[in-house]
Amino acid sequence: MSTRAAVVWTPDFLAYDLGGDHPLDPVRLDLTMRLATELGVLEGVEPLVPEQAPDEEVQRVHVPSYLTAVKSAPEHPFGVGHGLGTEDNPIFLGMHEASALVCGGSLLAAREIAEGRADRAVNIAGGLHHAMRDRASGFCVYNDCAVAISWLLDHGFDRVAYIDVDVHHGDGVQAAFYADPRVLTISLHQHPMTLWPGTGWPGEYGEGDAEGCAVNVPLPPGTPDSSWLRAFHAVVPSLLAEFRPQILVTQCGVDTHVEDPLADLGLTVDGHRTIYRALRELAVHTAGGKWLAVGGGGYGLFRVVPRSWTHLIATVLDRDVEPDRPLPAGWVAHAASLTGQQLPISMTDGGDTGYVPWTEGADRVDTAVLDTRRAVFPLHGLDPDDPRD
Among candidates 271, 85, 251, 73, which has minimal Cα distance to 171? Predict the structure, then answer.
């Protein structure tokens, strides 16, 4: 394990609980940490325990009146507005405290890197990328990703690249920095014509001095590992090489999985593992090794999220888990006690992660690749039709 990698975790993260049958069930976090522990990924690792982010930090990206609404919502569950009390964002006791703790987790990860105690850090409870300046959205109350990026900009970082691999468009983070040329946001997501929130078109590329600093790659439903990776490598490395970020912040939602109940892409746990390794390599080669990884979406609570995010934690720690590694019997027994689903037996789905570069052959994602490259590459001095760029 790298001595300069940090894991942020507290069981108190489980208090971010939208209740009932809500798909964002915190059991996925608990099962991930249990699996990482039982596989030995966390052996000798002392997780960093965060505190709630103070109001002034949350207000980096949210207006004060919104914080007031979040704090008062449990006492006024039907009259606070701001996107609270909806089916997606039901009100729950301790909502402000739980949401501020998630922000505190991502801030702690950012601080560890900024102050030189770590080159990489991971907070699987983070990644609440839909929350907007004055409202909750898409299961997200406070936008910990944007809060952490804003903090980094005030603490020694002039160029931050944010890469969002969640199946849903990273709309809240894009909105927070849409006119800020210091932040490059790249989101690969299911096509907005086929999935909420209906944004994330190639023509959304930033404004003012930040034109070209918002990048969107909308992918067709059913996109498998090989096609997703083809699109990623056709767009992301060239832009990062040109932008020269000082740190990568990555939202690692796993609702791209073929089994996810809320979306329609076709990735596997093997694809997720390959994505994390690609992000690690890009951090090394384009951002001086600085990498802050957070979680995000993912609603395959028992079969998918724990395995995928255990791979994420392992990748951050340089303790890569082999795909054919069997799942520990104790973990399987515990998970089986919580669900009637048949559980996988190893850390792989047997997915094929080989891909053909977009300059060779043809693939159904190539239209999206070309639309994105033609929208933003010229704004970075790159030729969208030149395979060398």
Answer: 251
Q: Which CATH superfamily is domain 5-380 in?
A: Histone deacetylase domain (3.40.800.20)
Domain residue ranges of the chain, discontinuous segments joined by +: 5-380
Residues 143, 131 contacting (CB under 8 angstroms)? yes
Q: Would you please indicate which residues are annotated as catalytic (active-site) residues?
A: 130
Tell me, yes or no, if the pTM score tops 0.90.
yes
What are the φ/ψ torsions at residue 138 (nearest 5 degrees)? 55, 50
pLDDT in tens, the chain (389 residues): 445 999 999 999 999 999 989 999 999 999 999 999 999 999 999 999 999 999 999 999 999 999 999 999 999 867 789 999 999 999 999 999 999 999 999 999 999 999 999 999 999 999 999 999 999 999 999 999 999 999 999 999 999 999 999 999 999 999 999 999 999 999 999 999 999 999 999 999 999 999 999 999 999 999 999 999 999 999 999 999 999 999 999 999 999 999 999 999 999 999 999 999 999 999 999 999 999 999 999 999 999 999 999 999 999 999 999 999 999 999 999 999 999 999 999 999 999 999 999 988 899 999 999 999 999 999 999 999 988 88
- Phi and psi dihedrals of 61, rounded to 5? -125, -5
